[in-house]
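Render this sequence as a predicted structure.
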Amino acid sequence: MTSSVPKLRPGNLLAIPRDRRCPELLRLHEPESAHHIVQFYEDESLVIENISYLAAKALASGGSTVIAATKPHLEQIRERLADSVLNLDAARESGRYLTLDAAEAASQILVDGAPADAKFDDLIGSTIRSAAKNSANGFVVAFGEIVALLCAANNPNAAVRLEQLWNTLAKHHRFSLYCAYPLTSLGSEPDGDALLQICAEHALTIPTESPL
């Protein structure tokens, strides 16, 4: 799914339209509000807007952000952040803005179609730890789309296992995680059991614009 994501004028990135606000989601950049939240969506611009907001808030406060997204989404997020008042190049050079190509990351952590604990820690765990080390407050805001790619590949069990590995990592490191699944990744007839398992691995589920 593709859509046009409008650019914001410098200084406007920290403002989110009122009709798109979810208090729990938009506090993820605060260490005391750390959560693992999932959002299902049809309009990708909503997700791009939300993660750009969270990343901007985290970076502005001296925190770090890790974004594991598709190449198109990585570029859209970069463009929005570059248009803000932030010095994105400096944040990247200081190790506070780290990105992973979701498709490449998936290929690196899967063994026989399932996430391998050690490979997950070598890639995702080490990236979170590096970002936390470079953060002024030791906190990280993360965004992940690897799980959505696994569902789109008709491998929801791997997505559930990956969500579980993220939760295990969160027991040892301070970060918030925002996951996003386009409805198209769930197929024309979503697996109800898999969907329930995915939701169960999150502190909060944000429903799509239309009923699931």
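Summary. The chain has eight helices and eight strands. Strands lie at 36-41, 64-69, 97-101, 110-111, 114-115, 140-144, 175-182, 204-206.
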